[in-house]
Automatic annotation (TrEMBL):
Its main location: periplasm. It comes from Pseudoduganella namucuonensis. GO terms for cellular component: periplasmic space. InterPro entries: Cupredoxin, MauL. It is found in: Periplasm. Keywords: Signal. This is Methylamine utilization protein. Residues 1-31 form the signal peptide.
Amino acid sequence: MPPPTTKPMPMFICPRSAVFLLSMLANACHASGIAVQVADSAGVPLQDAVVYVEAEPGQNLPKPLRAGEIEQKGLKFIPLVSVVQTGSRIEFPNNDKVRHHIYSFSPAHKFDQKLYSGTSATPQVFEKAGVVVLGCNIHDKMVAYVRVVDTPYYGKTDASGMVRIDMPPGAKYTLRAWHYNMVGGQPVEQALAVKPGDALGTAAIRLAMKPPAAEAAL
């Protein structure tokens, strides 16, 4: 007897956005964790996409436990993209041999700070959710992005476009994905219901991206 065939799961288009495709595999909406792959509209994996899962209002969430670090080295911010929970602090060590003067005009966190080589500086505390774009007043080509989220359940995709996020069962969540060069700039989203005893779920997200010229102009 030939083995039974498996029908492919349908592709869904979120009604709240027309710039991405979201495909949820069989158990993705009922999982204690979720493995997400993010790609562009052509299917090319996207590195440095931020994926986060937010619980519905009223749930007690763990407070920030991880501090971030954005290094200045080789006249670059390293890493290019960071993600932290609201209330987290980020250190900005200057490991170049020159002075930097970093800043942000973003509403989520406006600041201006001089960084001297080999000298520690006061960390910045990010209290408001949103996107913070970093620059340097001295070196105009330096740029970095901080996504501040109201949840401890988050991650950033690797070179293969993959990230895994674990969260407690017995709750309803919203899965969101964002990339600094995506069309529209707003995260895409999908509802999740996580039940006790459920297995790992998987999701595949496609984001429409700006052309390379638009990215270079940022």
